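Blinded run. Sample ID left blank on purpose so nobody reads anything into the name before looking at the predicted structure. Input follows.
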Amino acid sequence: MTYSPSYFMKCIGCSREYSPEEIIYTCRICDDVLAVEYNFSEVPRNLEEKWKKRPLSVWKYREILPVTRTEKIVSMGEGGTNLHSCRRLAKTLGLKALHVKNEGENPTGSFKDRGMTVGVTKANELGMQSVACASTGNTSASLAAYAAKAGIKCIVIIPSGKVAFGKLAQAIAHGAQVIQIRGNFDDALRMVRELCTRHPVYLLNSLNPYRLEGQKTIAFEVKDQLDTVPDKVILPVGNAGNISAIWKGFNELKELGMTDTLPQMIGIQAEGAAPIANAVKTGKEIVEPLANPETIATAIRIGAPVNWKKAVKAIKDSGGLAETVSDREIIEAQKLLASQEGIFVEPASAASIAGLKKLVLAGKINPDEKVVCITTGHGLKDPQIVVEKYAKPIEVDAELGVVEQLIGLKPIEAIAMA
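Blinded prediction complete.
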């Protein structure tokens, strides 16, 4: 059985088209990145009614995902993450309303699961026996899990000492072959790209356009959960696949006649790893790579984002913005979201909240606008940050009086006598 309409890959640079059966990641003519395009005239007219009858998940939207053989689908219940109405945080920031789409609620704790369910399914369809990725953490954790589910060998190349233990532990536990290199993420990605070119190993970094098709479902879910399209969508940017995927999702909804409006896309980067934000803010047409990106937000510590052209186009075409935030602002935002809304996210995720706060103070976001922040990964991905940056637990003797005094409580008897 086939779900989707006919589709193909198209170069975003020279518009060369490629068959979905080809194992290719960049254009053979100009080496630019590829995107998946559909023949929407083949989509059922009652598609929106069909979707309304299904529970939220990535595969709810299967009619516009690049899947040919449904028996090959590899799924662990990804998608369907909550869109939290954050009233306390909205009030603190001076907004009438704020929603947070918490992607840390996915099976392996990050938005990467949306991409991997489609990417590994595609590997399955193509008969690939091995998959690989370079990673700052979440990609490796997700790919390892989905490869394990599919019974496919998984190879992960990571920068030594640069991946949070919570993520590294996941990749190891799921049985991936994890190789640490003395270099950064960009070095790891160059290596894995060459590996996949020279051997029958399927690349599943965001350079693979099929992976981004899963991630575009964030846009579909936001529209379903709000019953409208927000004014602004704010999210962290690292390798830049997610912001472009979500923008693609909203545009496909418009093409299908399910919305008349599109949101502004706002990308947030850490100050020490901000090649895209720096280019957008200075009006440059080309994103210049950073040789040594540094930030506490390890998931977005990327100096040469492969999807920068897609990201810059998404920001500009949507009339959006790009902003940078400091590591201090990121940690403050992480604390704020956790303490006011009970949502614990990793530092990279908190960049979206830090960016929102900065933009509100700068008057670039209207208090009446519908704002959705995307938080991309769970806080338990990087618990060491809390150990290092937060207040330490207080240790006292096991005496109730000491504890009462410490927390400012008086015994009932003492209160009655007073």
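Unblinding after everyone has recorded impressions. The chain is about 40% helix and 15% strand.
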